[in-house]
Amino acid sequence: MRLFLLSSRSLRPQQARIDFTIRSAAIPLGPTREWLRLQPLNPSIIPTFLDFEASSLDLVCSYPIEVGICLPDGSLHSWLIRPAPLWNDWSESAEAIHGIPRQQLLDEGLEVELVAQALNDHLEGMVFSDAWTFDSLWLYQLYKAARMKPSFRLESISLLLSDQQVEAWQAHRKLVLERFGLRSHRAGNDARILHETWKSLQHPHAASA
Predict the structure, then answer these.
(1) I need a surface site. Which of 36, 42, 55, 199 has the fewest CB within 10 A?
(2) 86 is in which domain, residue-wise?
(3) The domain spanning residue 83 has which CATH number?
């Protein structure tokens, strides 16, 4: 299921909310995921964050058009994705939000193989998203089209947050947007917003100073 509680997705029905996705019971958690549920992440270890922009929010027809990552040191990487064959879905209302025309993808986007390889070159272990339902689907579509496998595992950011941090997320995200003047609705910036909001939550008194 998907609960709109904290997300920076540009195409999400509500803003500043996290997607608390619960995976199907048919998909085993695995020891690492179970460990995360039971133990808080060391606040000195900053996670890697990933965000997608997509052609629409249609879970059947949509596809990724941009992916951005923010590494633990705060460095950003993002890539426009040229639509693969049979990727024909397009939402004008979504374009009005993320501001990426389909023609720009055709002119400037990289082939899916190059984007998938770039992600594999930069990422390993666990990477976190605030909209696992959608981002995991678009990640799957990207690698399926590229005929490759990811070198990392995408997880929900909800695994990293305590109940108190969930409640405080929106306020900290607002502070981050004001402090850094970041434009949301682009994959790289949205990954950076996740990174900075996470850091702000680890040091709430410094963030409110």
Answers:
(1) 42
(2) 46-208
(3) 3.30.420.10
Looking at residue 29, its pLDDT comes to 39
The confidence score (pLDDT) of residue 184 equals: 82
Task: Name the residue with tokens 């939402």.
Answer: 91
Instruction: Give long-range contacts, CB 8 A cutoff, 24+ apart: 204-208.
Output: 204/168, 204/172, 207/172, 207/175, 208/175
CB 25 within 8 A of CB 144: no
Cα 148 to Cα 85, 120, 145, 169, 202: the distances in Å are 16, 10, 8, 34, 36
**Residue 11 placed within a domain:** no
Give residue 202's pLDDT. Answer: 87
Torsion of CA 167, 165, 122, 76, to 10 degrees: 60
pLDDT at 206: 55
In the chain, which stretches have pLDDT less than 50? 1-17, 20-39, 208-209
User: Which residue spans within the chain are E strands per DSSP?
Assistant: 4-6, 17-19, 49-54, 64-70, 76-80, 125-129, 152-156
Residue 32 lies in a domain: no
Backbone dihedral angles phi then psi of residue 101, each to the nearest 5 degrees: -70, 150
pLDDT attached to residue 42: 60
What is residue 8's predicted lDDT score, i.e. its pLDDT?
39
Q: Is residue 27 part of a domain?
A: no
- SS3 of 22, please? coil
- Please check whether residue 170 is in contact with residue 16, taking contact to mean a CB–CB distance below 8 angstroms: yes
- Note whether residue 5 is domain-resident: no
Say what the pLDDT of residue 94 is: 94
